[in-house]
Amino acid sequence: MDLGLRGRTALVGGASAGLGRASAERLAAEGCRLALWSRGGDALERTASELRRAHSIEVATIAGDAADPATAARVAEEALKALGSVEILVLNAGGPPAVEATRTEPQEWQRSFQLLAITPIQLATLLLPDMRKRKWGRIVSIMSSGIRTPIPELVYSGACRSALAAWLKTISLEVMADGVTVNGVLPGRLDTSRVEWLDNARAERAGTTAEEIRAGLERGIPAGRYGDPDELGAYVAWLCSEPARYQTGTFVPIDGGALRALP
Ligand SMILES: NC(=O)c1ccc[n+]([C@@H]2O[C@H](COP(=O)([O-])OP(=O)(O)OC[C@H]3O[C@@H](n4cnc5c(N)ncnc54)[C@H](OP(=O)(O)O)[C@@H]3O)[C@@H](O)[C@H]2O)c1
Q1: 3-state SS class at 160
Q2: For the chain, what are the domain ranges?
Q3: Distance, CA 195 to ligand 1 centroid (Å)?
Q4: Domain covering 9-188+229-245, topology
Q5: What is the pLDDT of residues 7-60, one digit of tens each?
Q6: Helix (H) or strand (E) holding 131
Q7: How far is ligand 1, taken at its centre, from the CA of residue 95, in Å?
Q8: Whose CA is nearest to atom 5 of ligand 1?
Q9: CA 187 to CA 239: how far, in whole Å?
Q10: Does the pLDDT of residue 263 top 90, yes or no?
Protein backbone atom coordinates (compact mmCIF):
# COMPACT_ATOMS: atom_id res chain seq x y z
CA MET A 1 0.00 0.00 0.00
CA ASP A 2 1.29 3.48 -0.84
CA LEU A 3 1.25 5.46 2.41
CA GLY A 4 1.49 8.75 0.47
CA LEU A 5 4.43 9.99 2.49
CA ARG A 6 7.07 10.57 -0.20
CA GLY A 7 8.64 14.00 0.31
CA ARG A 8 6.82 14.70 3.60
CA THR A 9 8.93 16.19 6.39
CA ALA A 10 9.20 14.49 9.80
CA LEU A 11 10.82 15.33 13.13
CA VAL A 12 11.39 12.15 15.15
CA GLY A 13 12.42 12.21 18.83
CA GLY A 14 14.53 9.59 20.59
CA ALA A 15 15.58 8.58 17.11
CA SER A 16 19.07 7.24 17.74
CA ALA A 17 17.85 3.90 19.16
CA GLY A 18 14.91 1.68 19.99
CA LEU A 19 11.35 2.68 19.13
CA GLY A 20 12.23 6.15 17.82
CA ARG A 21 14.82 4.73 15.47
CA ALA A 22 12.39 2.03 14.28
CA SER A 23 9.80 4.73 13.52
CA ALA A 24 12.39 6.84 11.69
CA GLU A 25 13.44 3.80 9.62
CA ARG A 26 9.87 3.19 8.48
CA LEU A 27 9.34 6.88 7.62
CA ALA A 28 12.66 6.90 5.74
CA ALA A 29 11.59 3.83 3.77
CA GLU A 30 8.44 5.75 2.77
CA GLY A 31 10.58 8.59 1.40
CA CYS A 32 10.15 11.21 4.16
CA ARG A 33 12.77 13.91 4.72
CA LEU A 34 13.84 13.60 8.33
CA ALA A 35 15.18 15.50 11.31
CA LEU A 36 16.29 13.07 14.01
CA TRP A 37 16.48 14.28 17.58
CA SER A 38 18.07 12.79 20.74
CA ARG A 39 20.68 13.91 23.27
CA GLY A 40 23.15 13.35 20.45
CA GLY A 41 26.48 11.65 20.02
CA ASP A 42 27.71 8.79 17.88
CA ALA A 43 24.50 6.74 17.84
CA LEU A 44 22.47 9.65 16.48
CA GLU A 45 24.98 10.48 13.74
CA ARG A 46 25.36 6.79 12.87
CA THR A 47 21.58 6.36 12.54
CA ALA A 48 21.37 9.43 10.31
CA SER A 49 24.12 8.27 7.97
CA GLU A 50 22.69 4.72 7.79
CA LEU A 51 19.26 6.09 6.83
CA ARG A 52 20.73 8.49 4.26
CA ARG A 53 22.66 5.64 2.68
CA ALA A 54 19.84 3.08 2.74
CA HIS A 55 17.06 5.34 1.47
CA SER A 56 18.73 8.23 -0.41
CA ILE A 57 16.90 10.82 1.66
CA GLU A 58 17.85 14.01 3.49
CA VAL A 59 18.44 13.45 7.22
CA ALA A 60 19.36 16.23 9.67
CA THR A 61 20.29 15.65 13.31
CA ILE A 62 19.47 17.75 16.38
CA ALA A 63 21.03 17.26 19.81
CA GLY A 64 19.01 18.24 22.87
CA ASP A 65 17.94 16.88 26.24
CA ALA A 66 14.15 16.56 26.57
CA ALA A 67 14.50 16.99 30.34
CA ASP A 68 15.87 20.53 29.82
CA PRO A 69 13.16 23.24 29.74
CA ALA A 70 15.04 25.16 27.01
CA THR A 71 15.15 22.25 24.56
CA ALA A 72 11.70 22.24 22.90
CA ALA A 73 12.00 25.77 21.50
CA ARG A 74 15.48 25.10 20.12
CA VAL A 75 14.53 21.73 18.60
CA ALA A 76 11.49 23.28 16.89
CA GLU A 77 13.62 26.10 15.50
CA GLU A 78 16.40 23.80 14.26
CA ALA A 79 13.93 21.36 12.70
CA LEU A 80 12.19 24.16 10.80
CA LYS A 81 15.57 25.46 9.66
CA ALA A 82 16.63 22.01 8.43
CA LEU A 83 13.35 20.90 6.82
CA GLY A 84 11.52 24.17 6.00
CA SER A 85 8.37 22.75 7.65
CA VAL A 86 7.50 19.91 10.02
CA GLU A 87 4.50 18.00 8.67
CA ILE A 88 4.96 14.92 10.89
CA LEU A 89 5.98 15.04 14.53
CA VAL A 90 6.86 11.84 16.39
CA LEU A 91 7.02 12.67 20.11
CA ASN A 92 9.44 10.37 21.90
CA ALA A 93 12.49 10.40 24.20
CA GLY A 94 13.93 8.27 26.96
CA GLY A 95 11.96 6.96 29.90
CA PRO A 96 12.15 8.03 33.57
CA PRO A 97 13.80 6.00 36.34
CA ALA A 98 12.16 3.04 38.04
CA VAL A 99 11.12 3.65 41.65
CA GLU A 100 8.87 2.18 44.34
CA ALA A 101 5.64 4.17 44.05
CA THR A 102 5.66 4.99 47.77
CA ARG A 103 9.17 6.47 47.56
CA THR A 104 8.93 9.13 44.85
CA GLU A 105 10.70 12.47 45.13
CA PRO A 106 9.60 15.99 44.18
CA GLN A 107 12.76 16.71 42.17
CA GLU A 108 12.32 13.58 40.05
CA TRP A 109 8.63 14.39 39.51
CA GLN A 110 9.74 17.73 38.09
CA ARG A 111 12.35 16.18 35.80
CA SER A 112 10.02 13.41 34.62
CA PHE A 113 7.16 15.82 34.00
CA GLN A 114 9.44 18.01 31.91
CA LEU A 115 10.74 14.98 29.96
CA LEU A 116 7.41 13.24 29.37
CA ALA A 117 4.81 16.02 29.36
CA ILE A 118 6.04 19.63 29.19
CA THR A 119 8.67 19.22 26.47
CA PRO A 120 6.43 17.24 24.08
CA ILE A 121 3.50 19.59 24.74
CA GLN A 122 5.66 22.65 24.08
CA LEU A 123 7.15 21.14 20.93
CA ALA A 124 3.76 20.22 19.51
CA THR A 125 2.36 23.63 20.49
CA LEU A 126 5.14 25.36 18.55
CA LEU A 127 4.78 23.19 15.44
CA LEU A 128 0.97 22.93 15.28
CA PRO A 129 0.17 26.40 13.84
CA ASP A 130 2.11 25.69 10.63
CA MET A 131 0.48 22.24 10.26
CA ARG A 132 -2.96 23.84 10.65
CA LYS A 133 -2.14 26.57 8.14
CA ARG A 134 -1.05 23.92 5.61
CA LYS A 135 -4.20 21.85 6.34
CA TRP A 136 -2.11 18.70 6.87
CA GLY A 137 -0.25 17.36 9.85
CA ARG A 138 0.40 14.24 11.90
CA ILE A 139 1.38 14.03 15.56
CA VAL A 140 2.16 10.58 16.95
CA SER A 141 3.29 10.15 20.54
CA ILE A 142 5.17 7.05 21.71
CA MET A 143 3.84 6.51 25.24
CA SER A 144 3.35 3.35 27.33
CA SER A 145 0.73 0.71 28.03
CA GLY A 146 1.30 1.85 31.65
CA ILE A 147 -1.23 4.65 31.09
CA ARG A 148 -3.88 1.90 30.80
CA THR A 149 -2.55 -0.58 33.37
CA PRO A 150 -0.11 0.96 35.88
CA ILE A 151 3.30 -0.72 36.07
CA PRO A 152 4.29 -0.61 39.78
CA GLU A 153 7.88 0.64 39.45
CA LEU A 154 7.10 3.01 36.57
CA VAL A 155 4.80 5.45 38.35
CA TYR A 156 6.66 8.52 37.02
CA SER A 157 6.07 7.19 33.50
CA GLY A 158 2.41 6.31 33.99
CA ALA A 159 1.46 9.53 35.74
CA CYS A 160 3.37 11.99 33.51
CA ARG A 161 2.30 10.27 30.28
CA SER A 162 -1.32 10.30 31.46
CA ALA A 163 -1.11 14.10 31.58
CA LEU A 164 0.31 14.12 28.05
CA ALA A 165 -2.50 11.81 26.88
CA ALA A 166 -5.10 14.19 28.33
CA TRP A 167 -3.55 17.10 26.45
CA LEU A 168 -3.22 15.18 23.19
CA LYS A 169 -6.83 14.00 23.34
CA THR A 170 -8.00 17.55 24.01
CA ILE A 171 -6.12 19.11 21.09
CA SER A 172 -7.13 16.27 18.76
CA LEU A 173 -10.70 17.60 18.98
CA GLU A 174 -9.60 21.08 17.94
CA VAL A 175 -7.15 20.43 15.13
CA MET A 176 -8.88 17.63 13.16
CA ALA A 177 -10.89 20.17 11.17
CA ASP A 178 -7.56 21.51 9.87
CA GLY A 179 -6.38 18.09 8.63
CA VAL A 180 -4.13 17.41 11.61
CA THR A 181 -4.43 14.04 13.36
CA VAL A 182 -3.11 13.34 16.87
CA ASN A 183 -2.60 9.80 18.12
CA GLY A 184 -0.62 7.82 20.68
CA VAL A 185 0.91 4.35 20.59
CA LEU A 186 1.26 2.38 23.81
CA PRO A 187 4.17 -0.07 23.76
CA GLY A 188 3.98 -3.02 26.11
CA ARG A 189 7.39 -4.73 26.17
CA LEU A 190 9.42 -4.28 22.99
CA ASP A 191 12.99 -5.43 22.72
CA THR A 192 15.12 -2.30 23.24
CA SER A 193 18.00 -1.30 25.49
CA ARG A 194 15.53 0.47 27.81
CA VAL A 195 13.63 -2.79 28.39
CA GLU A 196 16.88 -4.69 28.87
CA TRP A 197 17.87 -2.12 31.50
CA LEU A 198 14.47 -2.45 33.24
CA ASP A 199 14.76 -6.27 33.26
CA ASN A 200 18.25 -6.04 34.76
CA ALA A 201 17.01 -3.66 37.46
CA ARG A 202 14.08 -5.98 38.31
CA ALA A 203 16.44 -8.96 38.43
CA GLU A 204 18.75 -7.14 40.82
CA ARG A 205 15.85 -6.25 43.12
CA ALA A 206 14.49 -9.81 43.03
CA GLY A 207 17.89 -11.48 43.37
CA THR A 208 17.47 -13.41 40.13
CA THR A 209 18.65 -13.15 36.53
CA ALA A 210 17.39 -10.89 33.77
CA GLU A 211 16.66 -14.04 31.71
CA GLU A 212 14.33 -15.33 34.48
CA ILE A 213 12.57 -11.97 34.65
CA ARG A 214 12.12 -11.88 30.89
CA ALA A 215 10.85 -15.46 30.74
CA GLY A 216 8.27 -14.67 33.45
CA LEU A 217 7.09 -11.53 31.67
CA GLU A 218 6.89 -13.33 28.32
CA ARG A 219 4.59 -15.95 29.89
CA GLY A 220 2.12 -13.09 30.56
CA ILE A 221 2.10 -11.89 26.94
CA PRO A 222 -0.34 -13.80 24.69
CA ALA A 223 2.18 -13.49 21.83
CA GLY A 224 4.65 -15.33 24.07
CA ARG A 225 7.50 -12.92 23.37
CA TYR A 226 8.68 -9.32 23.54
CA GLY A 227 7.87 -7.22 20.48
CA ASP A 228 10.29 -6.14 17.80
CA PRO A 229 10.70 -2.32 17.62
CA ASP A 230 9.75 -2.46 13.93
CA GLU A 231 6.33 -3.83 14.94
CA LEU A 232 5.72 -0.43 16.53
CA GLY A 233 7.61 1.59 13.89
CA ALA A 234 5.37 0.20 11.15
CA TYR A 235 2.26 1.30 13.01
CA VAL A 236 3.70 4.77 13.65
CA ALA A 237 4.30 5.12 9.88
CA TRP A 238 0.70 4.00 9.25
CA LEU A 239 -0.63 6.67 11.65
CA CYS A 240 1.41 9.27 9.74
CA SER A 241 0.08 8.09 6.39
CA GLU A 242 -2.40 9.63 3.99
CA PRO A 243 -4.91 6.73 4.29
CA ALA A 244 -4.95 7.16 8.11
CA ARG A 245 -6.42 10.68 7.77
CA TYR A 246 -9.69 9.72 9.54
CA GLN A 247 -7.97 8.27 12.64
CA THR A 248 -7.39 10.71 15.49
CA GLY A 249 -7.52 10.87 19.28
CA THR A 250 -6.64 7.17 19.62
CA PHE A 251 -4.16 5.49 21.97
CA VAL A 252 -3.44 2.02 20.64
CA PRO A 253 -1.50 -0.66 22.53
CA ILE A 254 1.29 -2.46 20.66
CA ASP A 255 1.80 -5.17 23.25
CA GLY A 256 1.28 -8.66 21.83
CA GLY A 257 -2.13 -8.77 23.53
CA ALA A 258 -0.83 -8.13 27.06
CA LEU A 259 -3.56 -5.67 28.09
CA ARG A 260 -6.54 -7.73 29.21
CA ALA A 261 -9.21 -5.02 29.31
CA LEU A 262 -11.51 -3.96 26.49
CA PRO A 263 -10.64 -0.52 25.04
N1 LIG B 1 10.53 -0.44 24.70
C2 LIG B 1 9.36 -0.60 25.28
O3 LIG B 1 8.79 -1.68 25.27
C4 LIG B 1 8.68 0.56 25.96
C5 LIG B 1 7.55 0.29 26.73
C6 LIG B 1 6.87 1.35 27.32
C7 LIG B 1 7.33 2.64 27.16
N8 LIG B 1 8.46 2.86 26.43
C9 LIG B 1 8.89 4.25 26.30
O10 LIG B 1 9.13 4.56 24.94
C11 LIG B 1 10.22 5.50 24.86
C12 LIG B 1 11.30 4.93 23.95
O13 LIG B 1 11.77 3.73 24.54
P14 LIG B 1 12.89 2.80 23.92
O15 LIG B 1 12.61 1.46 24.45
O16 LIG B 1 13.00 3.04 22.47
O17 LIG B 1 14.17 3.39 24.67
P18 LIG B 1 15.71 3.37 24.23
O19 LIG B 1 15.99 2.18 23.39
O20 LIG B 1 16.46 3.57 25.50
O21 LIG B 1 15.87 4.66 23.31
C22 LIG B 1 15.62 5.94 23.86
C23 LIG B 1 15.90 7.00 22.81
O24 LIG B 1 15.61 8.26 23.40
C25 LIG B 1 16.80 9.07 23.44
N26 LIG B 1 16.78 9.78 24.71
C27 LIG B 1 16.98 9.25 25.96
N28 LIG B 1 16.89 10.22 26.88
C29 LIG B 1 16.64 11.38 26.22
C30 LIG B 1 16.47 12.71 26.62
N31 LIG B 1 16.51 13.06 27.91
N32 LIG B 1 16.26 13.66 25.67
C33 LIG B 1 16.22 13.33 24.36
N34 LIG B 1 16.37 12.08 23.91
C35 LIG B 1 16.59 11.10 24.83
C36 LIG B 1 17.97 8.08 23.30
O37 LIG B 1 19.09 8.65 22.63
P38 LIG B 1 20.25 9.48 23.39
O39 LIG B 1 20.82 8.54 24.39
O40 LIG B 1 21.15 9.86 22.25
O41 LIG B 1 19.59 10.67 23.99
C42 LIG B 1 17.34 7.05 22.35
O43 LIG B 1 17.39 7.51 21.02
C44 LIG B 1 10.71 5.73 26.29
O45 LIG B 1 10.09 6.88 26.81
C46 LIG B 1 10.22 4.50 27.02
O47 LIG B 1 10.04 4.71 28.40
C48 LIG B 1 9.14 1.86 25.84
Answers
A1: helix
A2: 9-188+229-245, 191-226
A3: 10
A4: Rossmann fold (3.40.50)
A5: 999 999 999 999 999 999 999 999 999 999 999 999 999 999 999 999 999 999
A6: helix 119-134
A7: 5
A8: 187
A9: 15
A10: no
